[in-house]
Write a structure and sequence with these properties.
With about 220 residues, the protein is α/β, with parallel strands linked by helices. The chain has helices at about 10-25, 40-45, 65, 75-90, 90-105, 120-125, 160-195, 205-210; strands at about 1-5, 30-35, 50, 110-115, 135-140, 215. It is globular, with a radius of gyration of 18 Å.
Length: about 220
Amino acid sequence: MKIIIAALPAAGHLNPMLGIGCFLAELGHEICVYTGTTMRSRVTGLGLKFHPLPEAVDFDLSDINACFEGRAELSEHDQVALDFENMFLGAIAEQDAGLQKLLLQWPAEVVLAEGLFYGVLPLILRNHEPRPTVIQCGVCPPPLPRTDFGSYGPGAPFTDSPEERAHYRDVVAPMVRDLLAPLQATYARVLSDLNLEEPNSDFLRANLRNADIFLQSGVPAFEYP
């Protein structure tokens, strides 16, 4: 079977996928890794085929501040927002265009993408048949709703306290929604530019909800109840 592995060119995003790729290659599958050119030698050194991301989104993330002017001077929250604007949501169209070209050259049956590689969403949402099965692998904590109404990301402790749950629901959650609103608008604009609609409309959970299969890595004991 031909399998494309898609990942951002950052160690924490790519390395878990390379482990999966090597395992699948040992089982006899043909693997092509779609990522940045800074990772070419790492990929080919494992005996896997390499295909670069389009130049416009082929970031050298060994020095992320050098990629985006002014990033180093921003607050931590604004840095994350800038990264989503540029590397995740803002890269969707280019990542998708490169993936379409790769599939024409190398028609894979499966695209296996890390959970924050948004460039596979257009392939899913167009739903043209036939298309490869799209499997996404969560290499970060899964952005699932919490039963205590705590927000994804900040790492706030899980609570059974009715008062603390009410605080999460009525104070923290609206604050987080306001902070994420500009990114949600970017997500909507990117999909609109591609003439696509996403039924769930939540950019944080878009990959998890739309993939044909979503696989989550991690240790269950580390997760919230």
